[in-house]
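Q: Structure tokens for this one, please.
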Amino acid sequence: MMPDNGSAFDAAKLQTFPGISAEAFQYPDDRKATSAIQQLPIFPQILKTISGGVLEKATRLDQISNSFRLGPNQGRAIYRLFVRAAEILSIDELPEIFLASGAVNAYASGMKKHTVTLLSPLVSMLKEEELLAVIGHELGHIKCGHMANKTLASYLAGFGAEGIGAYIPVLGPLAMQGLMVPLAHWSRMAEISCDRAGLLVVQDPKIVASALAKIGGWSEMPLGEINFEALEEQLQEYDQADDTVFDSILKIKQSFDSLYSSHPLTALRIKKILQWGESDHYRSILSGDYPRAEVRADGAGKAHCTACGQLLAAGSEFCPTCGARQSVSAAGPHCPNKACGCPLKPGQKFCTKCGTDLNKLPPPAESSPAVPLA
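A: Here is the predicted structure, written as tokens:
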């Protein structure tokens, strides 16, 4: 049960973002790392092998036998937060949410059937608004289309390259070893994207930062609330630790040590979310200026992947089976250069990002209307 903190936080009063696309908040390096992994020759075969196969079924059986599924009649307080977070992020098709025992953690899982799992020590230590930020973070993974990569990363963590390699004919464990470093790099970038999703849900950077601090080891019981100004001084010291050769070597060693880490350094992660919370990018989303997701639906009104035909959950930016990016239309005019897509202002003659001459463009061809996911 979440502790009663006596705060005036009211999730019902939070702003929602109808039809928001993950592109609105996704960290650019997350998209780059996702593209890099998808271009690896071994990735399609690995994805095909693990998609809906015995590993996912085994994970599902373990989940329903060792945890509690929350809903309107089970764990209602947390479930209401879950529903509210999904509403804010414009996720129409709710995944399942479970509560399990374990460490201070939470995670999203599943390629074809998405779930969010909260571990009870985490729930016990967080305030309501901090827990909502964590839930928003995990829903962010689903919103960003991270689930194929996350599922693969979780299998590698649980079974190792040898264990997963046994399921893949010809390629085997050696191919899996070659995927581990780029997959870990992608995971670190993806966490930053989802911290932003958590911020969009709670709409206060310090709530997200406080949750991250507690997950990273901070305890309010003996220590009180974290002092972010003191933390900023600590981070400045780290940034300036290039003054000597010795300090530089230590930072390089730390970078090598984190090659296989799935999460960014805690203090740096807190710094990034506080910075994004002060950015024009974040403020523009709050003002309603953000990309909206659009895909074409079938005759039954269901959205399918444009590459492999897989049925898509509402708000999906990437296919959970093949990883293909789905079409996105920005709110308002945007650069027609497919490699750019920068938002345009009325009367603009050239794209400020790629330099495209907007005066020389032919009139747009007529096309069938897209069906918004949310």
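A few notes: The first helix runs from residue 28 to 38. The chain is about 45% helix and 5% strand.
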